[in-house]
Design a protein that fits this description.
The chain is α/β, with parallel strands linked by helices. The chain has one domain: Rossmann fold (3-Layer(aba) Sandwich). Helix content is about 40%, strand content about 15%. It contains ten helices and seven strands. The chain has helices at about 5-20, 45-50, 70-75, 85-90, 105-115, 120-135, 150-155, 160-170, 195-205, 230-240; strands at about 95-100, 140-145, 175, 180-185, 205-210, 220-225, 245-255. The strands form two sheets. The protein has a five-stranded parallel beta sheet with strand order 1-7-6-2-3. A two-stranded antiparallel sheet has the order 4-5. Strand 6 (about 220-225), helix 10 (about 230-240) and strand 7 (about 245-255) form a beta-alpha-beta unit. One zinc ion binds near residues 59, 82, 83, 85 and 86.
Length: about 260
């Protein structure tokens, strides 16, 4: 009997749920927790995570550090507060939002989610994203995820951003759509590249699927795991606008600080 790809994936999920039942271990530190906790985080991690609930860039959502220079600027600044990157660059997306600052413990958590087969973390982290975006009251038509190259996705077994995006879409009552964006080329991971190299890397890496639906008058929420320079979500936003999207908002789990 031939098993379809979906059935194999479902079987894999069932097995992983049996081996790694969700809501038993803290998704950040791995300590035992009771299964009623909303994000599957222990008290200590809930407190230690660098939540992006302070000052953030009005455009991309990056956490803004309280530097001396920034304090001085506060006295003369008028208009929205922007990170260095957004002061000097324009973006194709309307606005970015993030849940936490990408420091070492958040990096470890994202790493576990992506590379340790912990697909079950998608729902928990997706719930964090959902709670971040609900109060923004955005008018949205579709939720999308930054796509992975099919070869990478098969290797990993899932696209971590897609898992979170599906949870967000469900919570918002908006359709999840993976029919538009495509990751065209297999490229090396970007975490060792500088901003210029990243830009060149992403420019040729993403595209629109053939015969993808037109997005006229659509307002889209694009989900990714981490926002670093923003080059990936910016390129995806450019493509979505090319496909006719009216507005693109970006929501990430974690973002670098500035
Ligand atoms: Zn913990
Ligand atoms: Zn910014």
């Amino acid at each position: 009997m031939k098993l379809s790809r979906d059935r194999i994936i479902n079987l894999g999920k069932l097995l992983s749920d049996l081996i790694f039942p969700s809501n038993i271990y803290c998704i950040c530190c791995g300590n035992l927790i009771d299964n009623s906790r909303i994000y599957a985080l222990c008290d200590q991690c809930l407190e230690s995570i660098h939540w992006a609930n302070g000052r953030t860039c009005a455009k991309c959502g990056k956490v803004l550090m309280e530097t001396e220079g920034r304090k001085l600027l506060d006295q003369i600044r008028s208009g929205p507060e922007l990170c260095d990157n957004c002061q000097n660059n324009t973006h194709y997306f309307e606005q970015g939002f993030t849940c936490m600052q990408y420091s070492s413990m958040e990096r470890e958590m994202v790493h576990r989610f992506k590379f340790n087969g912990c697909a079950y973390m998608g729902d928990k982290l997706g719930k964090i994203l959902l709670d971040r975006i609900l109060p923004e009251h955005l008018q949205l038509h579709l939720v999308m995820a930054v796509p992975m190259h099919p070869r990478n996705q098969v290797k990993r077994g899932y696209n971590q951003s897609e898992l979170m995006a599906k949870m967000v879409a469900k919570g918002l009552g908006v359709d999840y759509n993976n029919q538009v964006l495509v990751r065209k080329q297999y490229k090396a991971p970007m975490n060792k590249l500088n901003a210029e190299q990243r830009y060149a890397n992403v420019k040729s890496s993403y595209g629109l699927k053939q015969n993808s639906p037109k997005l006229e008058h659509q307002s889209i929420l694009l989900i990714d795991d981490v926002y670093t320079t923003g080059s990936t979500v910016d390129e995806c936003s450019r493509l979505l606008k090319e496909a006719g999207a009216e507005k693109v908002y970006v929501l990430t789990l974690a973002a670098g600080a500035n």
